[in-house]
Amino acid sequence: AKQAYVRNKPHLNIGTMGHVDHGKTTLTAAITRVLAERGRATYTPFEKIDRTPEEARRGITINISHVEYETDTRHYAHVDMPGHADYVKNMITGAAQLDGAILVVSAQDGVMPQTREHVLLARRVGVEHLVVALNKADGADPELADLVELELGELLAEHGYHDVPMVRVSGLRALEGDPEWTASVETLLRQVDDHIPVPVRYVDAPFLMPVENVLTVTGRGTVVTGAIERGSVKVGETVEVVGFDADLTAVVTGVETFGRTMDRGEAGDNAAVLLRGVRREQVRRGQVLAVPGSQSAHRRLVARIYLLTTAEGGRHSPVSGGYRPQFYLRTTDVPGQIDLDAPAAPGQTVEAVVELGRAVALEPGLSFAIREGGLTVGTGTVLSVLD
Ligand code: GDP
Ligand code: MG
């Protein structure tokens, strides 16, 4: 029988962000190694994090790896993403659901373009708390590291992040077992414990979980995975699949997290929900599981839309009526059209009717991203749903 998940510490969702090659994946592996020595994690080697081999074998690219670990006071799910585009997509759609993040900056290279973009992105999607891992400190000139810290402090303050702890670490040396640098990773984790607060979870709200992945487990049926956005779910309860014209309810026959069974999955948990009598092709990424009747799918909505400036990575030219970008909502993306009376320029905020190519679960307050040709060109919030 599977082990049960013991909920004896608050659970938080964090992750590494930062410029490519600054050492995010190495640090993620190092954290699991350092904590594994204390029986607080399963060591997850670099190759396993960077390639998500299980998903790759199944032909599913989710481009997001979760590792799990505990400190003295918290239980963490930690995400590491392979490339910059994955950060943009997963963060802006809320698929990553970060309560806080470790910003990894190489002390040897300093602030780079993706460092800036990820800080901006974190601010835009409401990641309130950051801790800096000034990585590769093993080979860095300490005076150069001082300058990098100064520049970083300015960048963070510009985006409203004040008093961000900065810890000089070496993910690589810690991974190799070097005692000095192992201690640096322990210091980093203490700062994460102290500086990133436990968020308010809407556990009493009706259950809602965006579908991230759907798998068949031989002999057990169909499993739907995702981060529970609000509410809770237990074995025996009925859930509805909403979005993409689904018409399906099912009884939950199991709830798990990281391979351990749970009495009840709660808002903030990364859960695997087993559904009775459902075939794998009946549920898809981009739909949501919800309390029956609590969510509805729509194609038309009124939204407040902000068009990113060119400096923020947005467009160089205005958009006008008939503009058809891609809309990223929770775990899905669908094409859609923005109904504009007059052209809107980068940097502008407009209210407009949006018509999506497919019906997805929508409600006022839901935020989304607008992308075009691999670039994030806007962010939006649903003001009201039409039909
Ligand atoms: P990511 O793209 O941010 O995930 O970076 P990786 O973890 O893949 O690391 C990129 C390169 O930097 C690899 O060759 C690592 O071995 C190296 N690296 C990572 N951390 C450190 C460190 O603390 N010190 C040194 N010297 N090299 C590191
Ligand atoms: Mg990486």
Automatic annotation (TrEMBL):
It comes from the Bacteria. GO terms for molecular function: GTP binding; GTPase activity; metal ion binding; translation elongation factor activity. InterPro entries: EF-Tu_GTPase (IPR050055), EFTu-like_2 (IPR004161), EFTU_2 (IPR033720), G_TR_CS (IPR031157), P-loop_NTPase (IPR027417), Small_GTP-bd (IPR005225), T_Tr_GTP-bd_dom (IPR000795), Transl_B-barrel_sf (IPR009000). It holds the Pfam family GTP_EFTU_D3. The keyword Signal does not apply. CDD domains: EFTU_II. The keyword Magnesium applies. Residues 9-200 form the Tr-type G domain. GO terms for cellular component: cytosol. Keywords: Cytoplasm, Elongation factor, GTP-binding, Hydrolase, Magnesium, Metal-binding, Nucleotide-binding, Protein biosynthesis. PANTHER family: ELONGATION FACTOR TU, MITOCHONDRIAL, ELONGATION FACTOR TU-RELATED. Monomer. This is Elongation factor Tu. The lineage of its organism: Bacteria, Bacillati, Actinomycetota, Actinomycetes, Streptosporangiales.
